[in-house]
Amino acid sequence: MTPNRFPKALLLAALLAACGHAPTTRAPDPATPTPQFGSGRRDEAYGLAPHGSGVYVVGRTWGKLYGPHQGDADAFLAKYDAAGTLVWGRQFGTSDLDDAWGVSTDTQDNAYVVGRTEVGSNTFDLFLRKYTAGGDLVWSQPVGTGGGGTGGGLAVHGSGVYVPVSIFGVASLLKYDADGTLLWTLRDHTHSDLRYADVALGPDGSVYLAGTDHDGMVLRKVTPDGGIVWTRQVLYQQFQNQTGTAVAVAQGHVYLVGNFQWWASGEQKVLVTKFGADGGQQWQEPYHNLYGTDTAWDASVDGSGNLYLAGYRGGGPHPSLVGFVSKVGPGGGPPLWTKTVAARPGAYAFAVLASPALGGLLTPGRAWPLPRAVTEVYAAGYALGDLGAGHAGDGDAFLRRLDSATGETLWTR
């Protein structure tokens, strides 16, 4: 989840009818991959969101990725189509450290970006930005001032933009309108150590928040006008250091994803707990290798209730850290597939997105005579080495599209 979740990111699956995805496009043959995108210095991708014919990616760069380098590190927003072609990229920042970890979209494909700007030694203010589908900045707003902010993603619904933050240690949910005006703030003064890590929206506009307090993982449901519907405390047996890192919601499927520390070895493992929209727990399942550490950072769910996890693992058969993406069925049980992103000396997957589309992607050897409903699955993160087709520098961001049925790589950028 990198700097403090570094926070989470994912967040919104567009409805099929509202997507307006372009007709089927053709992807390059994955046997002839292209280099991951990079500036020659460290570049990292942390968040994904769908648009009408592809995906937005956000992160940070220490070099000249999409424009002049402003300072220590700059935030970036990039738009790719479903075939992996860069449509445009924007790089922005101050003279200090800036990064972006969350992005979400509205029905006009406007992109909303949340991130942070350094205002002192290891002290940050948050920002919220809106861009048009063509890459023009509409507005930029500070979210909390005075160096007391940490965040956990964002989500967009017709009624507004939801940003979970912690300002001077108080967990808060902020709602903005499409013009960047703050509508209301929901503060939690009852849990002094509550930290939000992620946010997702239900089909009815309900807001679901994932986080952590002193007792472990927390899942909360909030109405569009800021009323708390229910809060669930989640623990897995008596394991230590249990943290909630992601929440994914679609059609009544509500997943809380987190991590816990294994007793004997101190290694970290992954926990998934599924709820209904009424807050009733349906099942709980640990997911991990027998040996080594597994960390889940992000999650997304498709219209059928399949859950996609992204994170990284090390130990056991992996001499260095590898990123991973796993697909879990709505009934739980073993993953339907798990794919790794490997590059020495390490690779990390920090974002995953399962987005419905009309048309889909034609790959070599396949032909669909008519457009059909498909699920586009994307993963993003960064690799400290070559993913197979060239390495730009210190560490490169990557964007990968996977086949939703098999997990096979369609392309990597």
List strands and helices in order, with pairings.
Elements: H1 16-19, E1 25-26, E2 43-51, E3 54-61, E4 74-81, E5 86-92, E6 98-105, E7 111-120, E8 123-131, E9 137-143, E10 149-151, E11 155-157, E12 160-167, E13 170-176, E14 182-188, E15 195-201, E16 207-213, E17 216-222, E18 228-234, E19 240-250, E20 253-261, E21 268-275, E22 281-287, E23 293-301, E24 307-315, E25 318-328, E26 337-341, E27 347-358, E28 361-362, E29 373-383, E30 396-402, E31 409-412
Parallel strand pairs: 1-28
Antiparallel strand pairs: 2-3, 3-4, 4-5, 6-7, 7-8, 8-9, 10-12, 11-12, 12-13, 13-14, 15-16, 16-17, 17-18, 19-20, 20-21, 21-22, 23-24, 24-25, 25-26, 27-29, 29-30, 30-31
What would you say this structure looks like, in words?
The chain is mainly β. The chain has one helix at 16-19, and strands at residues 25-26, 43-51, 54-61, 74-81, 86-92, 98-105, 111-120, 123-131, 137-143, 149-151, 155-157, 160-167, 170-176, 182-188, 195-201, 207-213, 216-222, 228-234, 240-250, 253-261, 268-275, 281-287, 293-301, 307-315, 318-328, 337-341, 347-358, 361-362, 373-383, 396-402, 409-412. The protein is 1% helix and 55% strand. The two termini are 21 Å apart. Mean pLDDT is 84; it is low at 1-34 and 360-371. The chain has one helix and 31 strands. The chain is globular, with a radius of gyration of 19 Å.
